[in-house]
Design a protein that fits this description.
Blueprint lengths: L2 E6 L4 H5 L3 H9 L2 E6 L2 H8 L9 H18 L15 H13 L4 H13 L8 H10 L11 H18 L6 E4 L4 E3 L4 H8 L4
Parallel strand pairs: 1-2
Antiparallel strand pairs: 1-3, 3-4
Helix pairs in contact: 2-9, 5-6, 5-8, 6-7
């Protein structure tokens, strides 16, 4: 049975566009997933990337077009200039880590609801109330937003180190336990084919 390490950032528009497709693919192949939220800005700095605010206008212009196309293809609402972007990713990441450790809810739904809160809900995913609502909506206790902060911080930092070591440089990024890497929501079809032994 395959295992996938899913590196994600809770304010990444492309992670939002991935929706719940990874979870569908994993279920169809009997694969397991470990969710690894990380600080995408720190990852960029470590791996030669550039934060959006520092990118050339040409790149940002193309990014805007690509996001618009991808949102239409995915059939989701998306505000390309959300009210709370960028924002502190740590609180929502800690909550996801705590939820994964606790179990009992729908982790994929939690991750997607946090991303949707940012990119279509005009909400600040660093806000405790927003995080608690996402936890409850995915079947987790709201108290997870307040507990396990130390463990969350340690895991969050470790996820960054593990990402760099694994060859990760963006989000969403999928690392299969056979060492195969897939970067971007638009590579999920390739991941599906790989797990099926066709690619």
């Amino acid at each position: 049975m395959a295992h996938i390490d899913y590196y994600l950032a809770t304010i990444s528009p492309f992670t939002y566009l991935a929706g719940l497709e990874l979870e569908r693919i994993a279920q169809s192949h009997g694969a397991t997933i470990t969710y690894k939220p990380l600080d995408i800005m720190a990852l960029f700095a470590r791996t030669g990337g550039v934060a959006p605010k520092d990118r050339h206008p040409n790149r940002m212009g193309y990014r805007a077009q690509e996001l618009q196309r991808a949102a239409k293809k995915a059939g989701v609402d998306m505000n390309q200039q959300p009210a709370h972007f960028p924002t502190n990713m740590a609180p929502s990441s800690y909550a996801i880590i705590a939820a994964q450790n606790a179990g009992g809810g729908d982790l994929g739904k939690l991750v997607h609801s946090v991303l949707a809160a940012c990119w279509s809900g005009e909400k600040n995913v660093a806000d405790e109330g927003v995080i608690k609502a996402c936890l409850e909506g995915a079947g987790f206790g709201a108290a997870l937003a307040d507990t396990g902060l130390l463990a969350g911080a340690e895991t969050y930092a470790r996820n960054l180190e593990e990402a760099v070591e694994a060859g990760v440089f963006g989000a969403p990024f999928y690392v299969v336990d056979d060492g195969t890497l897939f970067w971007g929501h638009d590579k999920l079809t390739d991941l599906d084919l790989h797990l099926a032994g066709k690619l």
